[in-house]
Every structure is written in C-alpha cells, then in structure tokens.
Amino acid sequence: MRCDSRRLPLTVGLLLALLATQTLFAQTRQEIQIPDISGYRTLKCDFHTHTVFSDGAVWPTVRVDEAWREGLDAISITDHIEYQPHKADVPTNHNRPYEIALPRAQALGILLVRGTEITRDTPPGHFNAIFLDDVKPLDTEELLDSMAAADKQGAFIWWNHPDWKPDKKGWFDIHTTLYEKKYMRGIEVVNGRSYYPSVHQWAIDKNLTFLGNSDIHAPSMLEASTPEKHRSMTLVFAREKTLPAIKEALVAGRTAIWFEDRLIGLPKYLQALFEASTEVSDINYMENGSVRFTLENHSDVPLDLERTGKLGPKSIQVPPHAVRLIQARVPSSESPHPFEYVVRNYLAAPDQGLAVTLEIPAQITIEIEVETEAQN
Amino acid sequence: MRCDSRRLPLTVGLLLALLATQTLFAQTRQEIQIPDISGYRTLKCDFHTHTVFSDGAVWPTVRVDEAWREGLDAISITDHIEYQPHKADVPTNHNRPYEIALPRAQALGILLVRGTEITRDTPPGHFNAIFLDDVKPLDTEELLDSMAAADKQGAFIWWNHPDWKPDKKGWFDIHTTLYEKKYMRGIEVVNGRSYYPSVHQWAIDKNLTFLGNSDIHAPSMLEASTPEKHRSMTLVFAREKTLPAIKEALVAGRTAIWFEDRLIGLPKYLQALFEASTEVSDINYMENGSVRFTLENHSDVPLDLERTGKLGPKSIQVPPHAVRLIQARVPSSESPHPFEYVVRNYLAAPDQGLAVTLEIPAQITIEIEVETEAQN
Amino acid sequence: MRCDSRRLPLTVGLLLALLATQTLFAQTRQEIQIPDISGYRTLKCDFHTHTVFSDGAVWPTVRVDEAWREGLDAISITDHIEYQPHKADVPTNHNRPYEIALPRAQALGILLVRGTEITRDTPPGHFNAIFLDDVKPLDTEELLDSMAAADKQGAFIWWNHPDWKPDKKGWFDIHTTLYEKKYMRGIEVVNGRSYYPSVHQWAIDKNLTFLGNSDIHAPSMLEASTPEKHRSMTLVFAREKTLPAIKEALVAGRTAIWFEDRLIGLPKYLQALFEASTEVSDINYMENGSVRFTLENHSDVPLDLERTGKLGPKSIQVPPHAVRLIQARVPSSESPHPFEYVVRNYLAAPDQGLAVTLEIPAQITIEIEVETEAQN
Amino acid sequence: MRCDSRRLPLTVGLLLALLATQTLFAQTRQEIQIPDISGYRTLKCDFHTHTVFSDGAVWPTVRVDEAWREGLDAISITDHIEYQPHKADVPTNHNRPYEIALPRAQALGILLVRGTEITRDTPPGHFNAIFLDDVKPLDTEELLDSMAAADKQGAFIWWNHPDWKPDKKGWFDIHTTLYEKKYMRGIEVVNGRSYYPSVHQWAIDKNLTFLGNSDIHAPSMLEASTPEKHRSMTLVFAREKTLPAIKEALVAGRTAIWFEDRLIGLPKYLQALFEASTEVSDINYMENGSVRFTLENHSDVPLDLERTGKLGPKSIQVPPHAVRLIQARVPSSESPHPFEYVVRNYLAAPDQGLAVTLEIPAQITIEIEVETEAQN
To answer: pTM score, two decimals?
Structure first.
C-alpha cells in the first residue's frame, strides 16, 4: 500500500519513502528503567544482530526500528562475513547493512555501530568486531589476518557464544593467541537465551569485558516471546551517550548484562546498580519488638533476596517498580540493624548472588520538652 | 549463532538449515476460534503481504512463520511487480518469494498461494492476482495485458485499498472495464487498519467478493500492536482446507472480513457466524415477572448488541469466550419472547449492524402426575 | 450509591436490592476449559471458603459472585464453628452464611453446598463437613460428637491442610479413629498455595478422596495474584451438574485437583484428562527419515512432557490452547511409533508425573490402481 | 487455615492474628505515577467506600489492604448512617469500621480518615462527611441537624453522586441552603464509573472542591475490571502527606480527579500536571524543512492531543511512560515554533480539553571558528 508504479516522478518516490517512515512514527518507545550509576549513564546495547545480508530474516532498517521501540540506545548489525545463505538472492556486500540502516538510526537517535561477525569453524568459533570503518578488509582466508585488519581499524573484538557447540567448546591455543595479541578484549557470557557459567568465570579470571547480546536472526518480537519481555543486552556504563564513549567503556570493561530476570557482572557494578535501584523507607519500630519498613524497587529488574544474616524474613521478592512491606523482629530499637542478604538474581560469579546489606537505622527519638499542648 | 564458515561440508550446511528451523519449533500456534458455518470450514486467510523482494522488510519465510503462529490457514505473498525499492541489493525475481517460502509452508501446513501485486498510478491503482503459475508474464507495460496474462492462468484478481489516496479515489471507467471483463472479481473492503465504508457499498451493489487483508510490510507483530491483537483477514468459507477449495469459495463470493473487533460481510454469512458463535442457556422465569438467561460467546470476536425491540437490556456486551448473565422483565412466562437486537460490530452494510433475535422459549411446565414421592 | 434512606417504602427497598444485583450483571463469567472424561462431567469446585461469619473478610454473596466469574460450578462456605474473631460485631450464627448466599447462588446457577469447618487444635486439626442440613448440631464440645452429628446428616467429611503446622503434622490415632469410623472419607492434598506430597501418598494408600481447595479468607482476586490466575480447586467427575451427583462422586473418590500449573490425582483420571485434552494431527513422514506432527492442547492446563523412550524431542511444552509442532527422527515410516513421555505436571504420585504415549501411526500408503486420470 | 479453636491460650490468638497479617505482607504495592506539582505532593485518595457495616461486601481491613496495593495514600470508609441492610447480622455501630481498620492503616502507612455517608431520599440525596471524631452525633432525624453535628466536629462535607437518579436530579433549595451555610464545600464530579458533566459545571461556577471517588461496595478488584485498571480517585495537592494537610487542601479546593483515562479539574491544576508529566527532547531540524522531536509522557495517564494551531500532526497519542516521535513541517528553523494542541483527555470544563503549547525552540547554531581539525 505504501508504494507506487515505476512511472512515478521522483518527488512521488520521496513521498512514498516518507509514508513508509510513518509506520515507525505510529510506534511508541518504551524506555528501559535501569538506573545510571557512579556518574556514568547506563546505556542499553545489543551488539550482535543479523539481517537478510547474511542468515537473518529482516531488512536492516527493522533492526533499528526494533531497537527504538524496545528502548535500546545502541546496536550493531553484525552479519557474517563468510556465511551468506541468501547470496543467490542478496549478493554479498559487507557494508550494506550498515549503510541501509544508518539514515533510520540517525532519524531515531539510535547509535549504530558498524560491525561484522568473523565466522570460523569451532574452534576457534565466531567473533564480532565493531567500530569498523570498512568491513571488506576483514574478508580474508586466515583468521589472524582478519583480526589484524579489524585491529588496524581500531575495532573492539570479542568471542561470541563460546559454549555454543557443547562437544567442541573450550579455550584453545588460538584463543590464547587472540587474547595475548589483545585482539580479543571481551566475551559473550550471554548469547540469546543462553547463559554460560564457565564463560562467566573466564571473564572474571581474564578480565574480559562482559558482553550479552541477542544474536537475533528473526524479527525481534518473534524471538522475544520470553516472559521477561526483553532481549538479552549489554549495559554499558558510559560517560555520555555517544559512540566514542561506548567504545571507551567497552575497552575499560565497564559493562554488565541483563539476561532474563538476572543481572550479570562484576560485583562493583552490580553493587552500584543495587544501590541505585532500591530504596528503604517508612521505617517504624513497633512495641512488639519488631521493625517494619518498605523496600522499593525502582528498576525493571526484579529483586530476589535470600537472608544470609540473622535478621529479616528468609526471602524477599520485589517485582519491578513495586514496593514490599517488610516486618522483622529485632533485638532492640536503639541500635542500627544490618539486614544481610544475597541478591540471588544479581550474579556476581557463577552460581553466586550479590551480597548486600539493608541498613536499618536505630529509632530516632525526638525529644520535645515544652509546648506539647500546641500539638494537633 | 546458527551458521558456520564457508568451508563446511554440505552435510553441515544441512544441519545448520535444520537448526535454523528449530526456532520455529520453539514457537506455538494459537488457533483462531471463529466457528465453521453452513457446512463450510471457516479458513483464516491473508492474501496481501510483502517481503524484501519488493518494499517489505522481511524474508519470505517470515511470512509463513507469522501465519503459523497467528493461526492463519492460508496466505499469499504479493510483492509488487513494478515497485522494487530494494532492487540494488535484491535483484528483481518475481517468483522467488513464493519459491523461498514454499518449503516452510509445506512443513507447517500453511496453504501458500502464489500471487503478486500489479501496481499502477491511482487511478486505476493496485490489484492483486493470486493462484498464478508464473508471475513473470504479468510484468507488462499495459495494465490490461497484465490482467489478461493473469486471467489466462486462471487467477483470482481484486482491487486493493480503493480509498488509499483520498484525493484520487473513486470508481473510474477503467474499473468498469476490469469489472465487465470479469478480471476484477473482488475488492478490499479492508486493508490493514483501514475500513472503507463506500467500498463496502460497492461490494454489495456489484456483488464483488469481500476481501480484508493485512498488506503488511514490516514484521507482523511490529504492526499488529492493536488492542485487538490480530491482523485484518479474510474468512473464507471453503468446502475443505485446500487451495482449490479456497479458490472456489473466492469465486463464489463466500467470504467475510475480520477487522479489529468487527466482522464485515453479507448478512447471510454474518447471520450464520452469529448463530454458530452464540448460545443461550440457563433460562429461568422468576416470580417477579422477569426471565433470566445466559448468553455465551464461543468466538474470538466480541459481541456488542443494542436493543431494537421492546424486551431486554438496552445494550449487551459479551467479550470473546465469556458468558453474560441477562435479566429482563417480560409480559408473561407462558409465551416465547423474541429479544430483538442489532449486533453493532457485525457490519451487514456501512454503518449498519446485523439484526438478530434471541429467541427465549416459554417456561416449560412439566406436569408430573403420579409417583411424586419417588422424587429426590 | 446503591442504597437509600430508612424511610423508603418496601418496594423501593426491593428496587435497591435489584440495583445491587446489577453490578454482578455487569460482570462476565470465564468458563474453565478442562474437558469432561469417561462419560462424566468435569465440575470445577471449591469446597473450602470463609466469610466475615468466621475469620474471612467478605460477605457470603461475594463467594458466589467470585465463583461465577471464575467459572466454578459448585462451592461451599465453610466458616469455622469454634473460631469467630469477629463475634463482637457479627454474632455467631452458623447457618447464616449459607442462607445469605443461597439466593444469589440460585440466581447465578452456582451449586451451593451447606458446609462448615470443625476446628480443633493440631492434632487432630481441622475438618470440613459438607452436605449438611443444619450446622448447629455440630457445635459440640467433643470432636467425635461433632463428627457423629455431621455423619447423621449424611455429610461428606475430610481432613483439611494436614501439613499446615510443620512441627505438629502427622497421622495420629485420632485420624485412624475418624478413618475407621468412615467419618473421614477425603483429605486435602492441596490447600490454597500449598501442596503436601506426603498427604498425596496417604490419599493413595488409604484410598481417600483427593480434595484441593482455596481456603480463601480475603477477596478471591486479592489472593489469586499467582501467575496461574486460578484458585486451587477440586475437579469432580460427576454424572450431572447437581448436588446429589457431586456427593456421589465425592464418596466414590472420582476427583482430581488443579493446583497452579499441575493436575494431581489417581492415574486413571489423569490419563483420561490427558487423552481428552490432547490431539495429535498433521502427521507427515518426510524424506529425511523424520516424522513431523502437531500436538494440540485443548485444556487450560499447560503440558510439560519429558521423554522417557527413545523417540521424540527431549522435552515438549504446550501452553494452554496452543499447538506445538514436533519433528523427530524415526527408524522407518512403515511401522507405528510410540513416543513415550512423562507429563511432569500431571502428578500421578508425589514427585512422579504421568506416563503417556503419543501413538504416531505408520505412513498411510493409499494405493490407487485405476482411473488415476480422474485425479485433480 | 489461619485460625484455631476456642480453647487456645491468648498467645496463640496473637500468633494467629499475626499470621493473618502475613497475607498482606505477601502483597506488593504499585505506586501510582502522577507527578507532584507546584511544590505540593500529589496524594492519591478515595474518600467514599463501604463495608459490611452498611451495604458493602467486605470487612473494613480489606479497604486498607486494597488501598495499599493500589498505591493510594489516603482513604475514608463512609458507611451509611441510615441504611444498614445487614443490620440483622451486623448490628449498627457507626464508628466500628474506622476502629477496625485503623490498626491496619497505621501498619501500612495509609492515612485513614474517619467518615460517614449521610443518606436521604433524593432530593436532597447523599452527603459524605469526613474528618469526624465521632459518627454517632450525626445519626439524627433532620438532615440539617446531622450537618450541624458534622460541622461542629470540623468535618469536610460534600454532595455525593448528584446525578445518580436521572429523573430526580438537579440543584434544589436544600442544596442552596447547605451551600450557603458552608456545610457543603465539595461535590462528586465523578462517582465510580460515572462522570457528570453538568456537575462539573456546577463545581466550576460555585467554586466547589472537585471530588472523584470509587464508592466501592464489592471487593475493589472485582469492580475495577475496567481497561484503565485503576479506581476513580481524588488527587489532592497537599503540603505534606498528613491528615491535616489533606484537610487544608480539600478546604482550599486543591484537587483534581483521575477518572478512567481522563484528568478532570481546574485548568491551573491540569496545566501543572501536564507540564510535570511531559518532556520534549531530541529536537532536530532536518534539511527537508521539518523538525523532529520526541514527546515523553512520565505519567500513568495517557495523552490524547489534537492540533488546534497550524503546526504539527493532527493528533498525537502518548501512552503512559512511553515516548512518541514527532515530525512536522515548519516554516523555518530560525525561530521557535509553538505547537498548539488541546489535550482531549484533560477536561478543563465539560466537553473541553486543556489548551497546551509544545514550545519547540529554534535551531541552535553553534559557531566554531577555529581548530575544527580537532573534531572527532
């Protein structure tokens, strides 16, 4: 309905292009509410997506529209260099996905990073390189040549879905080489609906930047039929919402991952996210030796707390943007009380939640000496 | 993640193709519950969709996957012959969308109809031709030549979105020609989110088959963010679920349209749908001169009834698959009562709902003469 | 807003009562879709609820309105005989909840069973007696006197929430007495949001009727904020939808329990429910040595299947009213294939799903000898 | 399940009471996001609710639990003085609902206002009096005596649902009397699901405080099955979250009403709410003579804007907490542009939306004279 015949003059063509854009204008964007931390902006990013230019099923502009609707700040289209199953119908042209998507990204304020997926048998497996100027020089016979070509352009490179093939997974010599040459500076701890605990440990041990990406091939909403209603993504703690700031943060390792109902990252970032996401208020010491308070969750990520200390209920769940009322017996109202918990769904290490303390201050005693008759 | 390098042997390529299919296997289909009528099956069809092969944004297989998930029985991919804005990247090949989508359609049991959109300035506008053997012969300079080529293949042809361009709309001589030559046998009373009342009247007056299609360009779920959660579609009342049966029904005009919360069609089909969708039960005459009964709606289409007679509440709404309790004063319990209503969202003509009668029988008096002591 | 001053004549009072009923008329009922089995109707029942007449928080009519809205067929209001925390404001009157709720139940077609909860320290704990004519005679000092009074009225009696108090739970002599005297003929395997595996085993071993009830005290929707969106209930397989038929089925032990996403009951009933809920169709043997078919779930209860045999995918999930496409390698197409699974969420015993077999027939070869030219 | 027998010692009774409270602790509160304005806190209040103590269907504590869950700050239970249909089972005791509900309100931080409904034939109709010390003195034969008794206690009084009885509605002499005596200082422009345009006009003309209340009788979630998913409520713009501050604001007329998807109030309050709820950003002048910007809605109330000026799209809808992208042709980029709209769902008067202007500044031209080579 949005097109017209080949005999139309140019201006009509423009009009039609505008009409096509209208669909997007009828959409709304839902901002993701995960707070900024430590003076950085928390940018929501997906650096691994595909289009019809390799084995994906959508036109490049769709990736931008989806990103805008879903509240993302930055994406990269990373079509395979070596694997082009639609080649007979869509001739290989490595830079086209970026070029096609860019005007739409600019129109919508989505930061678009030029990238690609270097695709080899496992091992070594697949790698994404982003912040490229030109994808073509990476189309080489030898993997190391491709890496060198990317590195020459100042690319940020990471290892994709290392556990994808269970029977061939592992850290091989080639990975050590890529790591030591500083080609490989990050790793996908999460890819799509998979979380890899052993890769999580590698990321910690080797100080690799944590990446979590969707790796979507189909239309986003088709794949995202999870109850969590969001795609896997990398949270980048950037100085500002610009491409250079994202690159700086990736190199510095300032990221965490939002996967299903879990946050995955280094303890320092998870701790900052917890503090920025929660609020204790309405503290009330009662006559029966209990204290009552509310715990509010300002974030889109739920909270699943389990008691590790002696105070407080055994477990506390707080859905996104909800308030939970908590009541617990305490030894006295005259000293502050640390309620010690582990946030089970904030993964500070494989199978290990984040240790947190809800600090409940002592009862405030206001002494009012005179003029009590003036009270209401 | 579902691919691999170019150096893989053929068997691995097959494996990868299978893996790609897995995504679909992880999806579920939701059947549409609109009942069969009058000995015909009510097939849910969308005969107007686009892909990257003209101005759409998805790969042809996506149209099949969407159709399967959304409970459709049959679709056609109808890319424009004349308008190919992606031509630089996806060279023109009119039969490819069908060829690419067919294996997936066969795998999923979706009936795929080969079709195309003949695209001219308005007037005359755009026309869909389906049930083609080969699209190429329709790529002609003159519209009538294209129509003749389609007709020669036994195509079923209709006029798309006649009111699309408000300043150029209308029934022109060319339409009379197409109609009299029996090329044009149907018309889109509904296209996407638009319903055209004046076209509805034409369809009635000229005995044209009612068509309602999505005309989707973007991924289906992206566009289908309406509260109704379904795309516009044609309900085809077919002898069986086969392509020849669909064609026979289209030629015979046995269709209706599901648009938002409305059904649009000839009164005889709407009447049959109403009867098959509703059930009156638990009729109960009460001592205060009222009768009470329930009205159940078995269909996915809500019911919005407005009283036209003297009996019953002023309006009755029954959501899909819900039961409504109705109580109304009646003159007596000894005669049957016709509750006369108009179903406002079943459009029998522009701005005119379907007249229906809920027949409430008289109170059944069971006279039991003897052995009353045997009752429980 | 629905009332008026004390000086109104009687007819206005009636009018106001009618107006109060109107709210209910604005509600809709959602039928629960769990199929009938083995010639019996599957009635949805909750035989354990409370009102302000003991420690509940709603007026008796609310229990009926909730039941109607939520698709239940029968309920009992079972206020505590001995525990009346609102007594100062609502003087004890054991039969009042039933009397107040009855007209509404009759109006809405809800079967209302007169019942009560006999409430003693644990052990022995609490017991429900239903199908009573008068609750008062059960208000006795001694438990056995109360039981005898109920039994004299032909009551059906069961043990409520046996595991309620973890430190005092267990089967004591008093339970043996009640069981041997045939007072206690059923047991709550499920109460509210709790399922008791050890009680499940008792029910099997002692041939006690399986009961699952909500035991709601607050308004139903307030408590039912579970993701499953239904209350715990007893499915009664009754000859017809009448009170005597329900009693006959309870005595005969023909019940199962719907708890969260699980069905709990004797294997014969679960087997029948599985067969009535599922449909295998579109069986298709493919050239690559696989068979493909669809599995449809007609019920509101999801299906969670795990493979126990050699054929088929490792696990299969089918949401309510959805269709899943299944593809699996098979040794040949010339013999039928039993796909052996356990339905993990149909609990045939504690921690033990129901064993089922999806029978996939061999490929049908239709030999057509003559007149092949007549084919379409 | 939460109770025990009458022979339990006192401590067990306490334990049981605590257990009953646990249900509430399992609930979560959803804060309502309608912003504070003009230095005042926007408190969400419902000053008209019923319990079993008159013609409602819930125990008083239920009203508090519902309020907490639904994000309210303050409520009043206003049972009828004169209409007590449950009197036979719940003897009249005007102050009991407040007394029963108060401990729970204190536990949950809900401000509970003691109130009642003075209930007379129409006309004059019904009136709520809140901020009472004792309800009993209002139980008088003469309406004016009841009003005087309330006034003596410093009550705030308003007229409830003036249009409730269509055939008897209107402003009568008695209303003038109540108004002139300054007994009646507010009026329900909204009651439950009804909005009264003519009463809206009275409120404006006579400078009466705008009230919108639920008047719920059934459990809140039972009645609140509207798509809007919130009850009708009064937004009180108070100096702080205390009872005296609410009273001061009611007397001063600082309120608005949230009804379905509409806000209703004096233009000055609606204007402030609009400004606090919306944000224009990402302003971008384009080469084709258009400007593009985003409009974000921070509030739970949607925005439905219709163009009244010359610039901008004809209509703009922004769902709660969503961002809309807007693009419009402008005469130049060198001057600021006022986009003039009316917010159709912010009712400044009957059938009259709020006039607003989106101020889009001129393009900012940053002149950088030297060192352009330093740019990235």
So the answer is: 0.89
